[in-house]
Amino acid sequence: MKVQAIKELVERQPFRPFAVRLSNGAQYNFAKPRSIGAPEDYNMIFHFGPTEAVRIDAESIVEVIEQR
User: Fold this and answer.
1) Which residues contact 47 (CB under 8 A, 6 or more apart)?
2) How much is the pTM?
3) What CATH topology corresponds to 2-66?
4) In what order do the strands lie in the sheet with 53-57?
5) Is the CB of residue 42 less than 8 Å from the CB of residue 7?
């Protein structure tokens, strides 16, 4: 379910910001299309910040937050 939800958010046009909250309490905001990367199966995603990149396993995502 989370994998499909993320795939839909990443691929929708026009892109709209969203965030994910992880089981460890961390939250990552995806404000623009360049801030996210993923392989075809979306079992992991990458958050690209200004100076770092973070790999996020889909299993650790507890909430997907659509931002308006």
Assistant:
1) 28, 30, 35, 36, 53, 54, 56
2) 0.87
3) SH3 type barrels. (2.30.30)
4) 36-37, 44-48, 53-57
5) yes
